[in-house]
Amino acid sequence: FLFLSVSKVNGQNASIDSTKNSENIQFKYKSLIIPSVLIGYGVVGLKSPSLKDINNSVKNDLRGYDDKKLNIDDFSQYSPFLSVYALNAMGIQGKNNFKDRTIVLATAYLIMGSSVNILKKTTKVTRPDGSSSTSFPSGHTATAFMGAEFLYQEYKDVSVWYGITGYVVAAGTGLFRIYNEKHWFTDVATGAGIGILSTKIAYWVHPLIKKTIFKDKDKTNGIVMPFYNGREYGLGLSMTF
Fold this sequence. Notes:
Layout lengths: L1 H4 L12 H6 L9 H13 L3 H15 L9 H4 L2 H11 L8 H26 L15 H17 L4 H20 L5 H28 L8 E8 L4 E8 L1
Antiparallel strand pairs: 1-2
């Protein structure tokens, strides 16, 4: 990110009109293909013996003979979307201003979080380590891919490499969830699909939300930060209108 921060691709101007771009994002059915395939794979995997065998195979291949666990996934899940705010703080402007991008992020987080929690409570899939029955889908992976798509949408007009970097981090988060025996491969695939789709939906509905809920509220300040209370990780959002 530090390297990308001092680079501009093809002489593009990093300053972009927030209002113009946020209202020009249109619904594209092709955008649904990848997240739909990922979610569909995970849903089918709930009952498919073949996909369950793949789950066990991926788990065994990643774990090998190493019993050591790495908790980097507890933090890497937040890094893609926090990078958007970090880059803006460094003077590299993305698609939207603070108000608009925060509304998009909050909308995406609400869609993603509610979807993940509903599925966890209804499917009741046991985690690989047997610690609980909330394995499906992976919330960490959903958060990471939500942030990766958010980073991509905000900075794809500056450099596509920002989004690629975010997706690499998100993929790594999913792999660590499997490595740490917290999720199956189908959990991670579905989480990735939900995360991507949540952000896409958030951008599609942003113009409507902005006009109906945040109309004429141009002076907006706030901060977005992850939190940890000793037991749970989450996202804290504070905004002043």
